[in-house]
DNA sequence: CAAACATTCAATTAGTTTCTTGAATGAGAA
DNA sequence: TTCTCATTCAAGAAACTAATTGAATGTTTG
């Protein structure tokens, strides 16, 4: 680690960033932040970490230049430092998927029915949206929905799904999305809808990727 | 790390891959492999690691699905498992550069003259190549050059540079490239050429990125 | 100013990772 | 078979990282 070798010193910089990504809790925090900026307390709650622990992970992410913090009254709000970080996470996901069969295995084990894994690509979804063939539902909490969502999407958080089945067209195809490829909400929604006889699919990735691709989004009050 | 939480289990898979990237020696090995497949001994020599240590790092890279090994007689030859890994390393580099000023600082400190850092993009290089405005030199060792290089490039490894200055057109602009953005060879070549009065620039990135972008390459005997 | 609150800091403990050394494989050559 | 050589394995010491706890900081509110 001595800086006598400049090449090694540069690799050490890259390694430090990669090392920061090399922790499940920190990746989870990044995924939460890919959605919307949030306070420490919120992040701790959503990730299941203690507040102190979250704070420490967040500071590491900040030291690596991956997130930024700003103060808002009593709270400190964190957010991604750079939209490109979503691309980096995507690349990491792709490589991991391709190379480590275990990821798929874990998914399969959890979601028993292989069927519910069928995913629609963004491109395909856009085509079907244009043709008016599809109802798009956003399974994230109302707060995240309000901050931005796919055009024409219906906000249907998981907890409300059963109560609001009537609002869904029984004939039309339904595509559900959520925070990203491995956000469980949309998987669960699809499984539930299929059980009730709906033609439901999952969007291959989620809202952050949609927005990062420069596709149109809507902002609005909660549905 | 119990797998009771499937979401966490998935993030743990991603984290394991990222953690494998989080080590300067391993990133250096990957950079060497981005060029051409190589034996353990060769990698150890080029990276300055002991053989046993290289072997262990390589096995970690293999476990993470980043490299693959095949046997060739007495030796084991390693290579990148997947061309996309170059993209991942590129994304990591971009984020690190943008967010950690230290990288540039280290570079600056080493290459004193800020001037020699001026880089030409791939796109710009292609334009100038088409117009016949530029001499392209490849500063990598002959072996790597033979395995693939930019069309029309002249192989001029650093050690031969001084001896072969005559072969270079004194008027025309020269663009040097090597193994990637942080390969020191092309920096040194540019510094040397400028000292001698040539109009020399560095290609922003290197051969692996060129090839990964699907641009044409030549294979040939050593120049 | 003092109380309440969100976040951060500091110190400890437990668990990983790194590099080194020397011995063990396993393939090819004699 | 036996020798040689490239690579891998195994074990141990040193350095680093994560999570926990309780105290400290700094902001808003009364």
Overview of the molecule:
The structure is a homodimer. With about 220 residues, chain A is of the alpha/beta class. Chain A is about 50% helix and about 15% strand. Chain A has 2 domains: about 5-80, Orthogonal Bundle (Arc Repressor Mutant, subunit A); about 110-210, 3-Layer(aba) Sandwich (Oxidized Rhodanese, domain 1). In chain A, the strands form 2 sheets. The first copy, chain A, has a 5-stranded parallel sheet with strand order 4-8-7-5-6. In chain A, strands 1-3-2 form a 3-stranded antiparallel sheet. In chain A, β7, α10 and β8 form a beta-alpha-beta unit. Chain A starts with 5 loop residues before the first helix and ends in an 11-residue tail after the last helix. Mean pLDDT of chain A is about 85; it is low at about 110-115. Chains A and B meet through α1, α2, α5 and α6 of A and α1, α2, α5 and α6 of B. The structure holds a DNA duplex (30 and 30 nucleotides).
Oligomer: homodimer
Helix and strand run of chain A = HHEHHEEHHEHEHEHEHEH
> In DSSP terms, counting alpha (H) and pi (I) runs of 4 or more, how many helices of chain A?
11
What would CATH call the class of the largest domain in chain A?
Alpha Beta
Largest interface: A-B, 55 and 55 residues
The helix content of chain A, as a percent range, equals 40-55%
In the CATH hierarchy, the architecture of the largest domain in chain A is 3-Layer(aba) Sandwich
- Outline of chain A: globular
> Could you please say which CATH topology of the largest domain in chain A applies here?
Oxidized Rhodanese, domain 1
Record the strand order, biggest sheet of chain A: 4-8-7-5-6
- Integer-rounded radius of gyration of chain A: 19 Å
Q: Mind summarizing the main beta sheet of chain A?
A: 5 strands, parallel
Unreliable spans of chain A: 109-116
Mean pLDDT of chain A: 83
Task: Please identify the structural class of chain A as seen in this structure.
Answer: alpha/beta
């Amino acid at each position: 680690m001595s800086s006598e070798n400049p090449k090694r010193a540069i690799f050490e910089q890259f390694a430090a960033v990669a090392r920061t990504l090399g922790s499940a809790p920190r990746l989870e925090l990044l995924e939460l932040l890919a959605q919307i900026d949030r306070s420490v307390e919120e992040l701790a709650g959503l990730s299941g970490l203690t507040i102190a622990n979250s704070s420490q992970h967040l500071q590491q992410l900040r030291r690596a230049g991956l997130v930024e913090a700003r103060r808002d009254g009593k709270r400190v709000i964190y957010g991604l430092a750079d939209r490109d970080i979503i691309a980096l996470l995507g690349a990491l996901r792709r490589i991991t998927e391709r190379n480590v069969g275990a990821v798929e295995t874990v998914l399969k084990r959890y979601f028993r029915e292989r069927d519910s894994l069928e995913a629609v690509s963004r491109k395909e979804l856009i085509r079907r949206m244009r043709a008016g063939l599809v109802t798009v539902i956003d399974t994230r909490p109302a707060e995240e929905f309000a901050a931005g969502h796919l055009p024409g999407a219906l906000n249907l958080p998981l907890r409300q799904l059963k109560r609001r089945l009537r609002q869904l067209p029984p004939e039309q195809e339904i595509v559900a999305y959520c925070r990203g490829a491995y956000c469980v909400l949309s998987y669960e929604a699809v499984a539930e809808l299929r059980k009730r006889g709906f033609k439901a699919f999952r969007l291959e990735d989620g809202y952050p990727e949609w927005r990062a691709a420069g596709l149109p989004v809507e902002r609005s009050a909660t549905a």
